[in-house]
Amino acid sequence: MKEEKVYRTFREFYPFYLGEHANRTSRRLHFVGTSMVVVLLIAAFITQWWWLIAVALVQAYAFAWVGHFFFERNRPATFQYPLLSLRGDWRMWWEMLTGKIRF
């Protein structure tokens, strides 16, 4: 059985996270999914249609998991590191939005 590394800080975790998102198509899918979360959350608060929050979560994971299962061919880090992965997703999204990471 393979022993998993335990990440104590986000600084330690983020290089691993980026390595799990090396495929450009996967990164693009993550970017689209995360961007849609922003739009859906804004729409939920403007319209007070709170069910859009659930839609935002479902579609975000759908885009990400397609990227992992079909393009990266790896297991999403969310399964083992849910909070670090959530933070990593938002940081990667910001770095792609600002041009620090190519997509």
Automatic annotation (TrEMBL):
Keywords: Membrane, Transmembrane, Transmembrane helix. The keyword Membrane applies. Signal peptide: none annotated. InterPro entries: Mpo1-like (IPR009305). Coiled coil: none annotated. It comes from the Bacteria. The chain crosses the membrane at residues 29-46, 52-71. This is Membrane protein. It comes from Lysobacter concretionis Ko07 = DSM 16239.
